[in-house]
Amino acid sequence: CEPYITSDHALMRERAEEIAQGIGILARLLKPREILLGIEDNKADVVENLQRELRAHDFSALCGRECSAEVITFPTKYPSGGEKQLIEILTGKQVPAGGLPAKLGIVCQNLGTAVAIADAVLRDKPLISRITTVTGEAVTTPCNFEVLLGTPVEDLLQACGYNAAQNNRLVMGGPMMGFALLDTRVPIVKTTNCLLAPTEAELPTPPPAQPCIRCGFCAEACPASLLPQQLYWFAQGKELEKLEEHNIADCIECGACSYVCPSNIPLVQYYRAAKAEIRERDRDMQQAEYAKKRFDARQERLQRLEEEKLAARKARQAKAAARSAQHARQNANEISGESGDADPKATAVAAAIARVEAKKAASGSAAASSGNAV
After folding, report:
1. Higher-confidence residue: 329 or 370?
2. Nearest 10 degrees: CA dihedral of 354, 359, 365, 366?
3. 217-240 in b/e burial notation, b at 16+ Cβ within 10 A?
4. Are 216 and 296 spatial neighbours (Cβ–Cβ below 8 Å)?
5. Distance CA 47, CA 71 (A)
6. CB within 8 A of 361, min separation 6: which ones?
7. Which of 361, 338, 362 minimizes the C-alpha distance to 350?
């Protein structure tokens, strides 16, 4: 967990039973063979209580198979709480670049999710609140609040004795991954785990960025084993394909590279902007592909309708030609009947008239077909 943030610690202290209940519901759904609850060793005061609550549940019965649950403590080192980092610490397995833990047969959930599941399933309570840490030297009484989502930030700050004159900038989140707030009237959201109100001495304003000196400190600090220096150059040059080739999606934006940079380059800001550009490009490509599919479908539909119209027109013309030939034959029969039994000239004239009528009908059909083709 980031420095200053104690919301998850407070959740483990106050709601261990709900955490175990949520884990039980997840176990029934996922049917795992093993459940590992990782806790940093600076939070040892909650281990015993969580172990007791986990022992109160028969996870094997819930899963319908042999299943064990264990609480594991590990050294406190930022950012060990990241999903991929935590999986590697607890299981020794590495999630492949661009992959998901599910490919390894692993599902990683945080404590807040477990509590929210227990509240929703067992108590019919939707996710309408969360625990938020309010801290920093610009507040007189830092503490954790269980606060309703949508509550204005300024209300929490007032409850903690906020001194705006001492605060150089207000941060939503921690000092490493948080972002500055320009207005205290913004609401608390589901991801607001901390409000940090530091003084200038506590969290100094970053100095202006200087050119990269290629020291390599950022690569040594990166927990995802990326190449932050290369990502920085590609982000500056808007080379989105190369950013994807260098697995920028695996960046967890922990801020470790920016923290160790001697040139004070805000690397994470470049990565966030590059990720946003990649998302926008992908969204535009999807929309363009969708528009192309719709256009192709429309062209096929129009062509099909035209072919159906042409076929119907040909059928009508053929029917009209058949009627004309039939009328001509009827006229010929009538003429031959009126002239007597043996009048070869009249018969020949009627036959000639019938042939002319049929030829006219055929020529009209051919002309209509050639007009449609043009």
Report:
1. 329
2. 170
3. bbeebbbbebebbbbbebbeeeeb
4. no
5. 7
6. 317, 320, 321, 324, 325
7. 338
Q: Could you tell me the two tokens for 139?
A: 């507040």
Euclidean distance between CA atoms 33 and 337, whole angstroms: 100
CA distance 235 to 302: 45
CB of 197 within 8 A of CB of 167?
A: yes
Asked whether 29 and 42 are in contact (CB, 8 A), the reply is no
| Residue 104, both tokens | 């390894």
Q: Quote the distance between the C-alpha of residue 159 and its chain's center.
A: 36
Query: How many whole angstroms separate alpha carbon 268 and alpha carbon 249?
Result: 12
22: amino acid identity, one letter: G
Stated pTM of the model? 0.76
**Is the pLDDT at 370 greater than 60, yes or no?**
no
Distance between CA atoms of 369 and 320, rounded to whole angstroms? 15
| Contact indicator for 346, 331 with CB cutoff of 8 Å | no
The C-alpha atoms of residue 168 and residue 177 are separated, in whole angstroms, by 17
Q: List domains and CATH numbers for the chain.
A: 1-127 (3.40.50.11540), 129-205 (3.10.20.600)
User: What is the C-alpha separation between 66 and 63, in angstroms, rounded?
Assistant: 7
264-279 pLDDT, tens digit each? 999 999 999 999 999 9
pLDDT value of residue 362 = 63
Task: Specify whether the backbone of 100 is left (phi greater than 0), alpha (psi in -120 to 50) or beta.
Answer: beta
The 10s digit of each residue's pLDDT in 61-101 is 999 999 999 999 999 999 988 899 999 999 999 998 888 99
